[in-house]
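dumping this here before i forget
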Amino acid sequence: MLVVTLRPQRPRDVVNVPPRRRQLVAGYALTPFLAVYGGFFSGGYVTLLTAAFLTAFRMPFPRAVATTKVINVASSLVATLIFARKGAVDWQLGLVLSGVMHVGVTLRAKWTMRLDERWVHRLFATTVLLAFKTLALGVPWSRLLNGQVL
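structure:
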């Protein structure tokens, strides 16, 4: 994701060129693979899916992000139903968090749609860089590799 985010942006006329057949095949193959990964591990799969949509389907950045959000909502709904069936959902906490997240997402979406695509991309790139920094410098790798419990 770091490479996809930091690579130079393509000019508008290149973005409008439809993807090649092999790019489409790769995109349609990666999507279910990443969905399974997301089902098992959750963390970062939407970001990886965004990178796949940017490269394989040649989507503009806002469209790739919006598409992955719809997929994330659908997968989260399925997970919620499965956990609810097992009685593992704290409904009171979940409803409070859902309400607050809805307000935040609505405000963020309205704010993002007013920004130029380059600024959205820069904010996203900053987030990815900070995540990479945290992974590289914030994880006690020596303890993990030696099998020590955190």
